[in-house]
């Protein structure tokens, strides 16, 4: 039985930990260099190239990016600081089952590459939600936009605050100093350099992330006596999991939840999330955009492997008596930092590198949030009402929006600090909203007879379902354990999009009682949230649409059904799904888009 949820003794030997764990000057220098370099890239793009004078350049990098920077940037956005801290502690506590998430990356990247990207790219959109207007109506577009803004604003604050809090607990580095430094530097380069700066700082930060994690694994494995020894200890401690083929959707991690449920997480992120789609749209050609999806794939497998190896190295160092049980740290995400400081304490500069790696994760996530929020607000909420706005003024306004969202983010970080154990709930809101938005886009793209009334009703039903499960789960766990669950949770960030709370309360090895009724409904594995909520949107949307008739703009539907039902005669297919291939209507859409603006 894990004792993870027993609160540590009040007079825990934190002081012992603190004496050995502190930053040297070299660490601070490395850490400052990261921030300075990031800011420098922003300033460079503010004064080079087109100098960010048009919205096209500021928000879409002039559609001139090549495949490598785009793919590294996609990777960095997806790999936040919460994930860098979450994955190793997940492996340390539960074993390597989580590694099977890698299986979901195949479909999770192939489907966006060949279905979502061609549709978005050929419509020449700036905001994904513009698609919803072309396909349904203005009201659906505004519903989608508002949902996304709500999701991102809540998430930003937490992503900024969580790593700073863990850092403060373990190394005693100043909490608000760290938050302000990150928030301001990030706002600076996003506002000055636009999407070009965001993408190139992401590339730089990805390299720092790899370096930081590699340093810890290499030094840690060396101290443990080599990789073979690490693996042997993990096997003895039964941390190496086999294929768990149990189809039960209430099981937290099985092969099916990770490889099938994971696909929907990946789609919510790589298929329709504005922050990611904006990267595809900034590519030079459609093929570059598709290639960047393929390049992300091996990189993601490497990132996942690094996180998992770090967890195993951690296990070989501490075995069953974790720093958490001993009371050195209070939560799981602090455990990883404690381990890093413990392993690297005699090597000045390396703890600083890891912290830089952690903050790179946070910076890359937040900067894409700022940029995508500015884009969405500009394209979906402001431009339609002021069609005559000059390009110079629109660009200035976009920069103002990026700056404004930067300050909102700092305010949200402050609110996050007041939330305490509700922090996990805030993180899971991100996951709750990703699913319904994915459902909304699928409804539009794959089902020609869906209409705007169906879309609005579907989205509402999906969000309702998401919050019902999410909040029900949270409350029912609070009742069962009766302790503030903060002490026993690992915040694990999967695909950055679906961040959901997971308790590390491992029940004893006896069989669990079968849950029934609502209790079973609430204990659905968090990996299925995205699939379940997007399915709700599609089903409700289709039922309502069938009752109210169809409306369809040619070229906004991907002819999946036409391809699947190839055996039906042509006229039935015409009836069921408008069989317009994507190509012939690029011209039609351009006329539609020009009439919209």
Automatic annotation (TrEMBL):
Subcellular localization(s) per the UniProt record: Apical cell membrane
InterPro entries: Na/Glc_symporter_sf, Na/solute_symporter, Na/solute_symporter_CS, Sodium:Solute_Symporter_SSF
Catalytic activities: biotin(out) + 2 Na(+)(out) = biotin(in) + 2 Na(+)(in); iodide(out) + 2 Na(+)(out) = iodide(in) + 2 Na(+)(in); (R)-lipoate(out) + 2 Na(+)(out) = (R)-lipoate(in) + 2 Na(+)(in); (R)-pantothenate(out) + 2 Na(+)(out) = (R)-pantothenate(in) + 2 Na(+)(in)
Any GO MF annotation of the entry: vitamin transmembrane transporter activity
Keyword Translocase: no
Keywords on record: Biotin, Cell membrane, Glycoprotein, Ion transport, Membrane, Sodium, Sodium transport, Symport, Transmembrane, Transmembrane helix, Transport
Family: Belongs to the sodium:solute symporter (SSF) (TC 2.A.21) family.
Descriptive protein name: Sodium-dependent multivitamin transporter
Originating organism: Electrophorus electricus (Electric eel)
Lineage per the UniProt record: Eukaryota, Metazoa, Chordata, Craniata, Vertebrata
